[in-house]
Amino acid sequence: MANYFNICLCRPTLNQCLIFGSVLFFLTIVLKYNLDFNLSYSNQNCALWSEYCRNLYYQDLKLLASGTKNCSKIISGDLDEVKKTQIDNLIVTNRRVLATDKDYLELTKDCTNFKKLKKYVTFSLSDKERNYPIAYSMVIHENIEMFERLLRSIYMPQNVYCIHVDMKSSETFFEAVKAISSCLPNVFVASKRELVVYASWSRVQADLNCMEDLLKSSVAWKYVINTCGTDFPLKTNAEIVKALKLLNGKNNMESERPPSYKKRRWEYEFTIVDSIVKQTKIKKKPPPINIPIFSGNAYVVLTRDFVQSLFKNSIAKNFLEWANDTFSPDEYIWATLHRLPEMPGSVPSHIKYDKSDLNALARLVKWVGLGGDMEQGAPYPACSGKYRRQVCVYGTGDLHWLAQQHHFFANKFDPRVDDHAIQCLEEYLRHKMFYGNIV
Ligand SMILES: *[C@@H]1O[C@H](CO)[C@@H](O)[C@H](O)[C@H]1NC(C)=O
Ligand SMILES: *[C@@H]1O[C@H](CO)[C@@H](O)[C@H](O)[C@H]1NC(C)=O
């Protein structure tokens, strides 16, 4: 072997050989310098398919969970490791103080430093992702740290993010959100703000405000995904892009025949009394559509054409207007419009197209009544965190199950209930972003 190289490279004179060697050395230095330069100062996509380059990026951008917990063990279902974090959560003095609005106002004074410190990924990870931008409509009202961690976990420079901040949020919260978005060119706050009253039309209006703004953005996004402040992703941007392409122009969401107890929600007019939605005795006219009402939830995956139709198609507009004095319209308007033949990306109203939340992609939720022993027929294990408003706020013990599901996002997470769970997801997603399947 040594001989072969000698013959190949060094049959010329020793001098030529030395020159060749020096040139090679010089080129290596230049290449290495360029890579490092790219890493720290520019958004250029370094050759991510090269192992060397990917490792460099990951060293710079990994999000490691704090303390001694081993997140790989937690996610692969190691109960002892889960127990350690649960015990830690019981010790009040161990509670981390969450970052405040003021902290973010301070941090974002220097945007470059903010993005570096918080490890934002400011370059696209592949051409396929770069060429497939996604829009996000994020409706939030409190907990700036949770919002910022959610934003960071879904942030990609080719995407576009509209943030709707509730009118009842504090002024400093709104200022902090504005400060964060001013550091990221493709993140903006909604041009119109609503005072969101639980179960009222205002929740839908907040998303509509963002969707209208997103349509005006110069980003040629293909799908919009909406989130609230307690969501966290289970999938990387690359995985979401891959799944959206497979949808082949269809929307995706929960959409089923409604249980009979929900029907009063749109059969009667509702009105807001002291910030609470109350039923009146006035019966509503039937909805101005030729299909029945379908039941779903507020979190959906919609094509750009569908969103455009919300503002253009008279059937959609009339239906939305008709729905504006009903109870929790967010939980049925998307599910119903998705079954209307006139709407782009819709599917037929036939029962064969019904889809439950567990079969849809948008959102994974554990409801209090359904969590239990799967061997006894429960659809999922009980909540390992805490139930709030009948919905599980996930703990580390839920991560093993969550990581095996197909959903883009899960709800709810709260660092005040289990910060370890969020930290482990952050670590897991960042690793998957660099070492999972790159599309
Ligand atoms: C976590 O546990 C895995 C084995 O499950 C091990 O391979 C890995 O090195 C551990 N990581 C740390 C940081 O200790
Ligand atoms: C609902 O639509 C009606 C008719 O256009 C309008 O007068 C009313 O202001 C709307 N209500 C809300 C809450 O948007």
UniProtKB/TrEMBL annotation:
One of its GO terms (molecular function) is acetylglucosaminyltransferase activity. It is found in: Golgi apparatus membrane. One of its GO terms (cellular component) is Golgi membrane. Pathway: Protein modification; protein glycosylation. The chain crosses the membrane at residues 12-35. Pfam families: Branch. InterPro entries: Glyco_trans_14. It is a single-pass type II membrane protein. Keywords: Glycoprotein, Glycosyltransferase, Membrane, Signal-anchor, Transferase, Transmembrane, Transmembrane helix. Belongs to the glycosyltransferase 14 family. PANTHER family: BETA-1,3-GALACTOSYL-O-GLYCOSYL-GLYCOPROTEIN BETA-1,6-N-ACETYLGLUCOSAMINYLTRANSFERASE 3, GLYCOSYLTRANSFERASE 14 FAMILY MEMBER. This is Beta-1,3-galactosyl-O-glycosyl-glycoprotein beta-1,6-N-acetylglucosaminyltransferase. It comes from Eleutherodactylus coqui.
